[in-house]
């Protein structure tokens, strides 16, 4: 089992017991998400329980590539279980965080951790290779996520400070060859928000790695689990180290930024507007405009060549990337980054309280609905909105569940429901939460691969693979008033070349008003679901790097590295010989397994509907996507569009048919599950009358 | 109106009116587009909000955010109307209107009106003795 450590740690918090599961029992599901779903399916007999029920099982899974040189897959951890965040049903869901936790877990000898039960008092788990101890977390309870990690580092390493003269070999009673290390343990922790079972509680690892979506911080809190620390000193067997090195060189030479010219933002020569760093992989691309403010240097997850984050001189916003850096958007960069740090210290999932969250609260205040004399009374300092004082107060209240924070700790959508506002605000679009209560990401009326994938799943998909090419890059250039940097037909050619097994189908990327309800769009969504479930969430290639369709570093064709790279690294590490298409078939199997779990939770096609504003309120701003008009590929402006309710319902029929699901219910069928070698899953569905 | 010509300073009363925060129904809707978060609606309640929203980084054009950042979008015609009718600053509205060109890109139009918005904001602050 090259690439795998061979065992998965199963921890029962109720009885303080530890067991191991053999990874080979689940290897057919690749790793990460696939193994997590399969274990969850087996371990949780009643899938309709609350996420806060001690019987809920949370998995933290690595990939066979974790801890290796495989680009962007070396340090990511997949987290799954019943999540309290999705609305209105608390679906079985997922999240993922970067850093080095998964690598350290592998070095400690494990492919994943399965957590069940509930500790009778605050507990943290201390894993040092084969030693696994349930530790007392009384002293850590109430601490923020950064302080918690610092305390655990001290506890495990035994050194009182980080100054070089005090630095010790952490396992000093061992010899150099059997476990001495200067590495600090990798810790994932919850903050006060998770302790209070917030539905927007996050898991935080180091400064800026968060498993935010799903509310798993709250689930840890419900289990009295404050943190998991891992220190490992083993190595990972790589089947063909030479092939792995060569593959890494291949990707670097052909598809990455030029280290002689790391600022490269080619091909757009317009000041320093970004956008292209997402495909040329210029380091530090995830930190927005911070380098204008103070010195910073690139930082990344273990072994990732992209290094999309930064460490800053002041420490503000260090390692943060993605939505947290625009959490308090519109404010000064310093305040923005301070806010990101603050939310991460509290262990609060930034996305649902960022722009669409606090903006909504301020709009309600302006309506006189919230405030000292509002229908819902609160002393939140709205007069300081835009300043640190407001966001600090908001985060404190959420984290402590004080006053209005008690409602908001349940998430803005559930708070709006409690206040009697939800229906009207989803209908007008004042609250932009199109699916399962998650904030709107890319526009659900136009770039439909995003919302379709989300509503068929359990959360906002947050998968940028198609998005960079078919929307974001043309969007930027068009708004800048430049000629499109890339020709729409060239991009669509490159994307469609790569989408094995549907390669060559260009209509899959026609986002014109009619084609978004077509059979081609069925294939677009199916491809993305299978790819994500296998290569992205099980093998765990990072979303910011994979898939790669159109890459200007690879001139003259600009063809990206998908579908060649995905199996190349996987096979070099594991010694298996699977093709890209094999991976997609496994992805389809995992997708159907997840779909079955949702069916067992009661999922029905009637639930798969967007918030009303998606159907009723036209898109107000320009929004460019690839589309074929009168025989020519163009970047079409989707401004003014809404989604057609009836046509979307018909599209669902087509999608369910394509998958072999029941079009009346949207649920998998015995036939389709047996075809995927999931007959045992069909048995359980039948037993529970859900097939 | 020439590029560099300042608008006449407003009176204290006028500056107060221009700088006030308007009500919910009078807000201007804007959109922040970023690569990580996609499109997000923003509510603009005052000239200060508008200037800050469009000002991604002082001294540079609103798009030029070094490594990433985003696009701050407002409907320019709607903005003129909002300034004219809601903030009741007809001079600023006229100044902006005269700089907008139908066949120009959004960015070029925004670049041409941003200095005027900044000037008006600074003038009002000065008149109201605000730092
Ligand atoms: S691209 Fe960024 S977030 Fe993804 S693995 Fe690399 S450093 Fe981590």
TrEMBL record, chain A:
Residues 4-234 form the Aldehyde ferredoxin oxidoreductase N-terminal domain. The lineage of its organism: Archaea, Methanobacteriati, Methanobacteriota, Methanonatronarchaeia, Methanonatronarchaeales. One of its GO terms (molecular function) is 4 iron, 4 sulfur cluster binding. This is Aldehyde:ferredoxin oxidoreductase. The keyword Calcium does not apply. It comes from Methanohalarchaeum thermophilum. SMART domains: AFOR_N. Residues 155-184 are annotated as: Disordered. Pfam families: AFOR_C (PF01314), AFOR_N (PF02730). Its cofactor is tungstopterin; [4Fe-4S] cluster. Keywords: 4Fe-4S, Iron, Iron-sulfur, Metal-binding, Oxidoreductase. It comes from the Archaea. Residues 164-181 have a biased composition (Basic and acidic residues). Gene3D superfamilies: Aldehyde Ferredoxin Oxidoreductase Protein, subunit A, domain 2, Aldehyde Ferredoxin Oxidoreductase Protein, subunit A, domain 3, Aldehyde ferredoxin oxidoreductase, N-terminal domain. Belongs to the AOR/FOR family.
Automatic annotation (TrEMBL), chain B:
This is Uncharacterized protein.
């Amino acid at each position: 089992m090259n690439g795998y450590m061979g065992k998965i740690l199963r921890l029962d918090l109720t009885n303080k017991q530890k067991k191991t599961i053999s990874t080979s029992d689940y290897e057919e599901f690749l790793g990460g998400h696939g193994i997590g779903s399969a274990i969850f399916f087996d371990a949780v007999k009643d899938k309709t329980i609350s996420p806060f029920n001690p019987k809920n099982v949370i998995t933290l899974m690595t990939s066979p590539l974790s801890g290796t040189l495989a680009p962007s897959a070396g340090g990511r951890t997949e987290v799954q279980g019943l999540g309290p965040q999705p609305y209105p049903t608390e679906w079985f869901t997922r999240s993922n965080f970067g850093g080095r936790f998964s690598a350290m877990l592998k070095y400690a000898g494990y492919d994943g951790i399965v957590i069940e039960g509930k500790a009778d008092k605050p507990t943290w788990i201390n894993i040092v290779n084969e030693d696994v101890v349930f530790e007392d977390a009384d002293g850590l309870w109430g601490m923020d996520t950064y302080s918690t990690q610092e305390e655990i580092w001290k506890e495990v390493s035994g050194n009182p400070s980080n100054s070089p003269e005090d630095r010790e070999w952490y396992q000093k009673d061992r010899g150099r060859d059997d476990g001495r290390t200067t590495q600090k343990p990798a810790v994932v922790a919850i903050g006060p928000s998770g302790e209070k079972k917030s539905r927007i509680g996050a898991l935080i690892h180091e400064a800026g790695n968060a498993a935010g979506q799903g509310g798993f911080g709250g689930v840890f809190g419900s289990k009295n689990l404050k943190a998991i620390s891992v220190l490992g000193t083993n190595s990972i067997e790589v089947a063909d180290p030479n092939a792995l090195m060569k593959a890494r060189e291949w990707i670097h030479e052909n598809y990455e930024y030029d280290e002689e010219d790391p600022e490269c933002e080619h091909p757009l020569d317009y000041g320093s507007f970004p956008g292209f760093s997402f495909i040329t992989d210029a380091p530090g691309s995830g930190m927005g405009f911070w380098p204008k403010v103070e010195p910073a240097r690139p930082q990344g997850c273990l072994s990732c060549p992209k290094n999309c984050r930064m460490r800053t001189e002041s420490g503000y916003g260090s390692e943060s990337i993605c939505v947290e850096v625009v959490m308090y958007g519109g404010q000064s960069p310093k305040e923005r980054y301070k806010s990101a740090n603050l939310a991460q210290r509290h262990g609060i999932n930034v996305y649902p309280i960022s722009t669409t969250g606090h903006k909504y609260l301020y709009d309600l205040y302006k309506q006189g609905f919230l405030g000292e004399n509002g229908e819902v009374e609160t002393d939140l300092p709205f007069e300081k909105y835009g300043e640190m004082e407001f966001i600090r107060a908001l985060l404190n209240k959420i984290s402590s569940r004080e006053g209005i924070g008690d409602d908001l700790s349940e998430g803005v959508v559930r708070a709006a429901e409690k206040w009697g506002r939800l229906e009207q605000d989803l209908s007008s679009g004042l609250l932009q939460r199109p699916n399962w209560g998650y904030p709107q990401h890319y526009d659900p009326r136009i770039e439909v691969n995003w919302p379709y994938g989300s509503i068929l799943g359990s959360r906002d998909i947050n998968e940028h693979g198609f998005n960079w090419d078919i929307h974001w890059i043309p969007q930027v250039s068009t708004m800048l008033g430049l000629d499109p940097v890339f020709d729409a037909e060239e991009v669509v050619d490159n994307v469609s070349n790569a989408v094995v097994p549907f390669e060559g189908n260009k209509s899959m990327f026609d986002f014109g008003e009619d084609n978004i309800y077509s059979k081609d769009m069925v294939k677009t969504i199916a491809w993305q679901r299978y790819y994500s479930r296998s290569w992205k969430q099980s093998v765990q290639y990072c979303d910011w790097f994979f898939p790669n369709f159109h890459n200007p570093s690879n001139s003259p064709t600009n063809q990206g590295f998908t579908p060649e790279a995905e199996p190349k690294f996987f096979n070099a590490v594991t010694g298996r010989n699977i093709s890209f298409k094999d991976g997609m078939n496994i992805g389809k199997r995992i997708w159907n397994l997840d779909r079955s779990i949702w069916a067992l939770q009661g999922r029905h096609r009637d639930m798969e509907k967007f918030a009303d504003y998606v159907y009723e309120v036209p898109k107000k701003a320009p929004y460019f996507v690839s589309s074929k008009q009168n025989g020519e590929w163009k970047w079409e402006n989707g401004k003014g569009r809404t989604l057609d309710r009836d046509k979307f319902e018909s599209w669902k029929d087509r999608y369910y048919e394509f998958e072999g699901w029941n079009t009346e219910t949207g649920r998998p069928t015995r036939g389709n599950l047996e075809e995927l070698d999931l007959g045992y899953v069909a048995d359980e569905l039948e037993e529970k009358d859900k097939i | 109106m020439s590029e560099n010509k300042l608008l006449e300073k407003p009176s204290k009363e006028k500056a107060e009116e221009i700088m006030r925060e308007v009500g919910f129904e009078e807000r201007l809707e804007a959109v922040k587009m970023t690569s990580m978060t996609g499109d997000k609606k923003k509510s603009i309640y005052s000239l200060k909000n508008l200037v800050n929203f469009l000002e991604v980084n002082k001294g540079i054009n609103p798009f030029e955010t070094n490594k990433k950042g985003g696009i701050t979008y407002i409907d320019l015609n709607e903005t003129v109307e909002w300034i004219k009718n809601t903030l009741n600053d007809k001079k600023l509205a006229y100044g902006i209107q005269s700089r907008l060109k139908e066949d120009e890109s959004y960015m070029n139009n925004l670049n041409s009106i941003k200095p005027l918005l900044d000037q008006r904001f600074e003038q009002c602050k000065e008149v109201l003795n605000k730092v």
